[in-house]
Structures
1.
Amino acid sequence: MNAEVLDNKTQVSIIIPTYNESQNIVKILRTISKYVPKNISTEAIVVDDNSPDGTGKIVEEYLKDFKKVAGYTINIIHRKAKDGLSSAILNGIQNAKGETIVVMDSDFSHPPQIIPKMIEAFKQYQCDLVVASRYIREGKIEGWTTKRKLMSKIAIMIAKRGLGVKIKDPMSGFFAFKKNIISGLNFDALGYKFLLEILVKTNGINIKEIPYTFENRQFGSSKLDNSIILDYVKSVWKLYKSKNSSITNEKRGSVHFISKAARFFTVGASGFIVNYVISMLFTSGLTELWYLHANIFGIIASISTNFILNKIWTFEDRDFSRKKTFSQFGKFGLFSSLGALIQLGMVFWLVDSHNVAYPFALISAIGTAAFSNFILNKKLTFKEKLGG
Ligand code: GDD
Ligand code: MN
């Protein structure tokens, strides 16, 4: 026996929403129990919406005789009324004990044999989300009408174009993920497209698609009707707005730009003070360095404090991983030196060949250098869009 099973901690939770699935539910639960990995403690959670055909009662009956297989349990959540597939999935997740969540339909369109492959994929590909996909090589659909196929394609196109979703089958209802990737997220859970919400609302997760064949159900009927198509449109619109809330409004974009530039110049001014104080300190008191050497320390100190303040305050970047921070610091230093060169060159050019008075030349040169510095750091060091 496996130690992980003995300590009884559930590792995988399989969420199975049902609405009028009396002809499928027992069979699918039996089949799933054959395929759950034996060394991984697993629970199945049926989420039933008070199905008029008695699906919920059938499950209760089945559970009375269900002999617990080592490491495998089945639970059921009874909801009062039909409240949609996505919301059923969300309810299941909220009650799940496992770290890994698998979501699947109960009508055999999602073959249970794929479950162990999905769980294996987490380790194999070091990913956080595994999507069983009909639209990659070796994946397919059987038994769908041309109309339904076309609808699926259009829905996918909308998700890709409108929401910038990258994977091939964002409409899949068959997927698995590490629960921690959704912690702190709020879900609209409208209609059918739970996966799409995960795709849009998480950042930088690793996704792997594995192929499967979707077979249209043999028993019962699909619950996808026009209201669900409408929910899809609503849900895409909501996601689109939440995704672009900071840039839809151009005014807001320019406010951001100006406030960031103001912070950048404030930091620059603070750097001037640091530079001055450190340079003075090192020429007097304990160290008594030669003033040019002391000035080098002043410059290094002010570049460092400028960098830290700009990273945290101006550009609100809280990622302090070592590699990233060092490379940003390198760029920042480079642009600071570049700024100095621009400033020197411009002062010289204005005073010498255009007879501009030195104070004016200095002010425009400092302004130009500071502004180009801001743009370069915004775009290249902190990888922001220019306008926002
Ligand atoms: N609890 C609950 N409440 N379950 C529901 C509800 C609901 O309101 N609506 C549907 N379900 C359950 C069904 O009983 C079934 O187990 C599963 O959700 C999928 O419903 P179907 O009606 O069979 O969906 P479909 O076959 O048309 O579409 C499926 O496949 C598509 C392609 O992978 C869904 O999984 C889609 O999300 C998916 O895009
Ligand atoms: Mn179905």
2.
Amino acid sequence: MSDSVRIVEVGPRDGLQNEKTPVGVEHRIAFIEALIGAGLHTIEVGAFVSPKAIPQMVNSDAVLRGVDHHPDSEFHVLVPNEKGYEAARAAGAKVIAVFASASEGFSRANINCTVAESIERFRPVVARAKADGIRVRGYVSCVLGCPFDGEVKPQAVVDVARTLSELGCYEVSLGDTIGVGTPLKAKHLLRAVAGSVPMANLAMHFHDTYGQALANLYAGMEEGCRVIDSAAGGLGGCPYAPGATGNVATEDVVYLLEGMGIATGVDMPKLLAATNAISRLIGRPPVSRVASALNAKGRMASSE
Ligand code: HMG
Ligand code: MG
């Protein structure tokens, strides 16, 4: 597995959307710039969703404009409907992400419509984005379990992933929103979805609630998947997925990949500094194992 892997850093969106302490525009921009400085160049920076639903993502337009001058980076923003699309386009978005669910319960809780209705909402968004030269990524949530409906059949994931791909999403990210998956289930799911959407167009977006995310990623990599979503420090979760914790931590993913001989281009000390800075701001230490280990090592070295 010594080929390349693309990391999509989602901390500034998926991470901060679930933090009780709202983080202001300047600090969100500083966090994103620290991540770019650490070598992460594909970053989800905000969401054009209802401010009543996710107040933490208010002012995503200012965040996007504030980082726009980094020509070598690719910034993604979430868009749930045409209203969000218009705001994202006005703020200069070049890549947007629409988000559907494989389960009805989460779809209703998260975006207040059925799965089929959400696809109909995305249809004009994707068509307009295509006409405007904006690329569209797609998410499928609850691919390995739903907080409301329980078990989710792989076929439900296959159907939504295929639909998003047919609509025109260049990549479909498979979200284990509540982090309940285990490696063999992750492997079987990827194999099933890859029967309808080429593996090269799939990404893994695994939350780490049950501590399985790295194992699940490894299993998915064995199936051939080479795109990983992660959040610096293991930040966040989804406010509409009760009990779910953050994404797999970027530090942990980078440590795993580098240990496997896969170069990530990420500077670990700089990533750690970015994680520590945002952790200080939100007032709690990073949940990342690698960040904890490196911070402990740093404390020991400075006390010697
Ligand atoms: P709704 O209430 O059904 O929408 O919400 P509506 O069309 O009836 O409008 C209600 C109000 O929202 C109106 O305002 C609209 O103008 C406003 P009012 O007249 O009451 O003042 N509104 C908007 N405002 C700003 N931007 C918009 C927008 N749309 C409507 N785009 C809606 C439906 C989808 C808008 C809402 O449920 C929503 O915003 N949901 C987003 C929830 C969310 O962001 N969840 C977290 C992201 S998903 C996730 O984390 C999972 C993921 O990481 C993958 C994984 O882990 O699996 C991606
Ligand atoms: Mg997520």
